[in-house]
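Re: the request from the purification team.
They wanted to know what the chain is likely to look like in 3D before they choose a buffer screen. I agreed to run a prediction and write the result into the notebook, where they can find it.
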Amino acid sequence: MTLLLWRFEFTASPQARTPVDPSLVWQRILTSLDSSSLAITHRDNRIGYCHLIPSVADRVTHSGPTNAPEGRVRSIGGYILDLSGSVGTPETEIRIRFDGRVTFARNQEWEAFRIQINARPLLVTVTATNHTGLVCLKMESPELATERVLRWSDFNQPESLLAQLLGPAAPLAINALPFELPDIRLLDTSRQMQWTTTTDRLTIGNSTSLVYRLDLQALEGYSVVILVSRAGEILRVDLPEHVTLINEAITGL
């Protein structure tokens, strides 16, 4: 599958920087036949890994035939993105493991997400639903057990929020990160974040591949760039503070 994917990419002919319908790119990502295994780097130093697995949810119906072949989706009810991985550096001596799931409706609008972050002895679970705009934050450790319901606006000041939730343990949680936590401000949450989607070209060795490029002004003063193969596989993600995710299939090329 990987060989066929790259052969398809390298022989692509359309011009780069051509606008593309964002829904088309997200459809490719959410229905990709292959998962994306990504190496996480900070300033070119590998600090972890991340696996992203897309799947299609079968729509539950109470009529029609029920003897469809096993594994075939009879009717699309939505989409699912599962992720897992870990980050850490020898300097911090702390390994942060994470796993989560994001569910999307048939129109690609996100419905809910859940992520669990394990930085022993601290376990953090975050769940949210789109229609309520509420975020449930649960933290557990031998000395701490707390659960709070927050709104998106509460995340405008990450350090203040951590100090409020963790008290004296906040500096320890921040120092456990393998990179400095930037002084960020979320965009106005009343405005829906818009992706700018175009075609682009990614050079791998001596070959150039046509890919999709997604740009998002996710944070005030910070941007996110995602490069996606035309088959929907995540190839590269550029995040703030020099954090990059690179597909394992191309790191050795």
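For the purification team: The longest helix spans residues 2-10.
Please add any questions underneath this entry.
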